[in-house]
Amino acid sequence: MTQQFTLAVDVGNTRAKFGVFETAIAAAPQVVEISAVRLADTEDLAHELQQWLTNVGVSKIRCAIIAGSNPPARDSLLESWPLANSPPRLIESHVDVPIEVDVDEPARVGIDRLLTAYAAHRLFAARQTAIVVDSGTATTVNLVTSDGVFRGGSILPGLRLSAYALHDYTARLPLINTDNIGQPVEPSDAPVPGRNTDQAIRSGLFWGQLGAIKELQSRLSFAAVEQFSDRTAPACLLTGGGGRQLSPYLSPSVYIDSLALHGLALLSTSEKAVNSGNRG
Ligand SMILES: Nc1ncnc2c1ncn2[C@@H]1O[C@H](COP(=O)(O)OP(=O)(O)O)[C@@H](O)[C@H]1O
Ligand SMILES: CC(C)(COP(=O)(O)O)[C@@H](O)C(=O)NCCC(=O)O
Ligand SMILES: [K+]
Q1: Stronger pLDDT, 103 or 270, i.e. the higher one
Q2: Residue of 96, 112, 230, 257 with catalytic role
Q3: Which of 115, 110, 109 lies closest to 29, judged by CA?
Q4: Angle 188-190-191 (CA atoms, 0-180°, nearest 5)?
Q5: ipTM for the whole predicted complex goes beyond 0.95
Q6: Pocket of ligand 2 from Cβ distances under 6 Å
Q7: For residue range 232-268, what is the model confidence (pLDDT) as tens digits?
Q8: Structural domains of the chain, ranges and CATH numbers in brackets
Q9: Contacts 24+ apart (CB under 8 A), 199-207
Q10: What is the pLDDT of residue 280?
C-alpha cells in the first residue's frame, strides 16, 4: 500500500483551511493536523502555510491539493506557493470532482459545496441520503442522495455575515460578535425573549440560523423521498466555522472539522492525482 502525506488547502471567504492527511490508495484519509487562518488576519497566506507546516513538523509532503470558494485569495496563494517540490493540484471545476451534479448549471456550484458533498457520500454516509450543512461565510445546506448524486441545496447568510448586515444596514443596531469557533452556544448566550437589543440580535441570529437550517433539512429530507425516491434515513453532516456552535442543537448530526479538506485528501488518492507527478 502506498502511504503518503497529503497537504490539502481550502480557501474560503473568511478563512483558509490547511490540512495534512495520511493518505493511502483504497483507504479513508486520516487527519494528521488541521488548522485555519483568518484571511483578515494575514497579508501572506503562503508564509502562514509554510510556518504552520514547520510548526506541525510535517516535512515530507508527497502531494498537495487546493481548492476554494474564494478564487482571488486562492490564486494569490498559488502565485507564491511555498513548497517548490510539491506544486499543488488545483481543484477548480465540477469536472475535477467525481460526483454527478444534478443542477441547472453544474459549473456555477461552489467547489466547496461539491467537495463536502463528495466527502460526505464517500467517507461518512455511503449508503444514505446526506444533508450537508456548511456554516461558513454563507451557510449552505445541500442534498446528496444515497446514489451519490449532488442534488443542489440552499444558500443563506452565515452567522457573522448576518451580524454585519444588521449593523451595516441599520442606523441603530450594534455589531454583535458571533465569533466562537470551537465553543458550543449556551441558551443563556442567546436568551429568548431577548430583553435588550444585544440579546434580541444574539437570539435572532443564532436561533434564526438554527431554525432556518432545520427547516431546510426537513424540506430536503422530504425532497429526497418525493423527488428522488430515496427512502434511506438521512444523515446530517455539519461543518464550517459556525458548525460547532450549531451542532448540539442539530441532533442527530455529526460535526466534521473542515469537511472539504477530507474531500480534497480523498481526491488526492485518485488515479489522476497519483499520476500527476506532484511528488516532493
Ligand atoms: N473567530 C471567528 N472568526 C471568524 N468566523 C468565525 C469565528 N468563530 C466562528 N465563526 C463563524 O465561522 C464562519 C466562517 O466559517 P469558515 O468555515 O471560516 O467560512 P469560509 O469557509 O467561508 O471561510 C463565520 O461566518 C462565523 O459565523
Ligand atoms: C455559497 C458560497 C459563497 C459558500 O462559500 P463559503 O461561505 O463557504 O466561503 C460558495 O459556495 C459560492 O460562491 N458558491 C457559488 C454559487 C453556488 O454554489 O451555486
Ligand atoms: K466553505
Answers
A1: 103
A2: 112
A3: 115
A4: 65
A5: yes
A6: 12-13, 69, 108-110, 112-113, 134, 136-138, 140, 155
A7: 999 999 999 999 999 999 988 999 999 999 999 999 9
A8: 134-255 (3.30.420.40)
A9: 201/163, 201/166, 201/173, 201/174, 201/176, 202/176, 202/178, 205/159, 205/162, 205/163, 205/166, 205/176, 205/178, 206/159, 206/178, 206/245
A10: 28
